[in-house]
């Protein structure tokens, strides 16, 4: 009798907790560049997700294509978990993306395929990862003087690339 009560209570609490917290898992269906993805949420609702705290090279910038390929290799067509912190000015969802317990945002910096985005940085671990990638000359750090994406975008505006 007591066993049955515990079993019923356990099933009830498990169901209750599953319904009380929203699921932040999604299926990655698109990679725009090294720091922006498209995900299908529950109900097949697509959302645009900007990986927070990092800035990847623009598509037409050196390493832009490689950065996109690296992010694709890590999470394309995979179910990921989002730790959502809000929205950016373009109405994209800002999030840290996890796959199999790994912080994908951080993995992009570790591999030298993205910068720690100092302007929006909250976690110093991204700076440490960038320094290590720089010292090992990984990815974009193999270049003599890589241009951060925010500076690249200013040049594009100014010179109309």
UniProtKB/TrEMBL annotation:
UniProt keywords, alphabetically: Endonuclease, Hydrolase, Nuclease, Signal
Q: Where is the signal peptide, in residue numbers?
A: 1-20
Q: Name the domain of life.
A: Bacteria
UniProt keyword Cytoplasm, yes or no: no
The record's annotation in Gene3D superfamilies points to: 2.40.50.90
- One GO molecular-function entry: nucleic acid binding
Quote the PANTHER family the UniProt record gives: EBNA2 BINDING PROTEIN P100 (PTHR12302), SERINE_THREONINE-PROTEIN KINASE 31 (PTHR12302:SF3)
Question: What is the official name of this protein in its record?
Answer: Nuclease
Which species is this UniProt entry from? Rodentibacter genomosp. 2
